[in-house]
Amino acid sequence: MKKTTVQQRQVCCCCCRGDMCIVVVVSVYIFLSFISYWALVVFPWRWWETFWGLLNIIIFNTIVALMAKSYYASIVTFPGAPPHPYKPPHLSPAQLAEFMDGKYKPRKIFNQIAPFEPRWCDVCDNFKPPRAHHCKELSSCVLKMDHYCPFINNCVGYRNHKVFFLFVFYASVGLLMLITTILFRIISDVVVKIDSVHPIETLIAVFHVAISLPITLCIMSLCTHQFFSILEDCTSIEGYLYDALKKDSRIKKRPFVWIFDFGAARNWEEFFGTNRWEWLLPVMPDHIAHGSGVEFDYVPGDEEEHSVVVGDGVVVDRMEGGSTGSGRWQDSEDTRVVVL
């Protein structure tokens, strides 16, 4: 019998799990919002007869099309799984044998170079690459995992993070346009009384705004969070480590630099790609499509300035170890640790 790969199984699971009902609900809401725009604004005001009205229609429909394409891509694009078997390239055969002997007794230690420490996944029976984490919903480790999103019935990771961000971005812009135009219609009908309409139409418009406003605020909040995470090259999971280390640096009055932060410009290109014409298009950047997702450059620095958060959150200094200077962590004989 022919065996399927992990990626093939997960692509299938993304469309077959029970929580696809959430995806259906989101899709229905998007469709109803699109219909409301035409029924409550475009047709009553005959916007296709004026230049500004036609321009508004073109912009709104373009945003909806890009949002729908990004949403679909977020659902069907597998975020990426580590190769099996995967072995940390910086471990010597002797170090690998020592690690395997004690792989079931990990310690909860986090530090600046934690993503490059050897980590073992008991479920996948494999090493975790840097920045990878296990997703129980996908039953697989995910490369550069950000979070699991029930609204796309998929995990956001290395290969679909861009299209997910574009989805929330276009959803934010589209909903803002929708709410603004409907509010203008309500003000015109109720206050200015430009048009003579049936009260039921006004009630439907008010109800739609009341439903869409909190949804818009939530999506905009998520979009803002994702935007600043992109500029700092820090995933949502890594945010806990980021905040702890930043707080510790502030207490000790040390300059803090996130280990993956090479500046907003480079971080942006690392996420969106170098082709500016594709930044706002729901397509996978070339370096992501052809990348392994298991190797990441980091900012070399003095390891004595790095901190460690142990178990219950106690912050201590770590004085051992060092970086290779080439962007890859190299183990010391006395400082081998396991990170969950």
Fold and architecture overview:
This protein has a domain of 152 residues. 49% of the residues lie in helices and 10% in strands. It contains nine helices and eleven strands. The longest helix is centred in the middle third of the chain and has 34 residues. The N terminus and C terminus are likely disordered.
Short synopsis of the structure:
The protein is mainly alpha-helical and 340 residues long.
Strand/helix succession: HHHHEEEEEEEHHHHHEEEE
Shape: elongated
Largest sheet: 3 strands, antiparallel
Radius of gyration: 24 Å
Strand order of the largest sheet: 1-8-9
List low-pLDDT spans. 1-13, 103-110, 302-340
How much is the average pLDDT?
78
Number of helices: 9
Instruction: Please estimate the helix content.
Output: 40-55%
Give the terminus-to-terminus CA distance.
Answer: 35 Å
Strand content: 5-15%
Q: Give the number of DSSP strands.
A: 11
List the helices and strands and how they pair.
Elements: H1 6-16, H2 20-45, H3 51-76, H4 93-101, E1 109-111, E2 119-121, E3 126-128, E4 133-135, E5 140-142, E6 147-149, E7 154-156, H5 161-192, H6 199-232, H7 238-251, H8 264-272, H9 286-289, E8 307-310, E9 314-317, E10 322-323, E11 329-330
Antiparallel strand pairs: 1-8, 2-3, 4-5, 6-7, 8-9, 10-11
Helix pairs in contact: 2-5, 3-5, 5-6
